[in-house]
Amino acid sequence: MFDVNMLLTSFGLIGILGIIFMETGLLIGFIFPGDTLLFTAGIMAHANPPFTPLWTLLVGIPIAAGLGDQLGFFIGRTAGPRMMDSRAMRWIGPEAVDKTNHYFDRFGAATVMLARFVGVVRTVTPVVAGISHMPYKKFTLYSVLGSTLWGTGFPLVGYLLGEIPFVQDFIHWFIIAGLATVFVPMSIKILTLMFRRWRAKRTAAKTATKLAPEEPSASRPGSDLSV
To answer: One GO cellular component from the entry (predicted)?
Structure first.
């Protein structure tokens, strides 16, 4: 049987809050499946003994999410349009940026709240809001609403699921499966990004080699002799 206590201790509340903050604060949310993480955290809080009381999740996660939004907004506001050409944005991909812009065109400022429930889009949204100079008070209002609904809803559903007798009997395996759905996609995403980066470097090296001027061939013996 897995040592769940050791597993939960090593993962920890601080680890969960750190990941939630980094999703939007450090623009690496495209790696972490945040929804699954919150859902799993709720189940983990129902374990016996719980790795942390439910109330710490319901309070800590919205705060971490809101602070991450604030940092992402600040980055967008200070870095401006050049942020869109940064390495982080290239890693996220143009599809996520286009999708975020589509949400802003359709829902306006409410995108800041709705994006919390859409993977990857929630990572880009604070930056785009900062670049577009959305009023800070309006951004903060929708950010708080979205962070609160998202940060309390998923853990609470997971916790209530832990009340089901079948889940209680196999809660160890539900926790392992939940964590696997977090770390396996994350690992695959990281490996994919590393492979793409390696392939891009290899392609660039081949292109540079083809474009490099050819060196003059060495003169063969006797080639300079007069006829």
So the answer is: plasma membrane
In a domain, 206, yes or no: no
The answer as to whether 195 is a domain residue is no
CB atoms inside a 10 Å sphere around CB 159:
20
Give the number of domains in the chain: 1
Residue 217 lies in a domain: no
Name the nearest CA neighbour of 57 among 80, 77, 78, 34: 34
pLDDT in tens, 66-116: 999 999 999 888 887 777 776 666 667 777 778 888 888 888 889 999 989
Range of the domain at 51: 7-183
Assign residue 80 a region: left if phi > 0, alpha if psi is -120 to 50, beta otherwise?
Answer: left
pLDDT digits 0-9 by tens, 20-77: 898 888 777 656 667 778 888 888 788 777 778 899 999 999 999 999 999 999 988 8
Q: What is the DSSP string of the chain?
A: ---HHHHHHHHHHHHHHHHHHHHHHSS-TTTS-HHHHHHHHHHHHTSSS-SS-HHHHHHHHHHHHHHHHHHHHHHHHHHGGGGGGSHHHHHH-HHHHHHHHHHHHHHGGGHHHHGGGSTTHHHHHHHHHHHTT--HHHHHHHHHHHHHHHHHHHHHHHHHHTTSHHHHHTHHHHHHHHHHHHHHHHHHHHHHHHHHHHHHHHHHHHHHHHHSPPPPPPPPTTTT---
Q: d(Cα 38, Cα 61) in Å, to the nearest integer?
A: 8
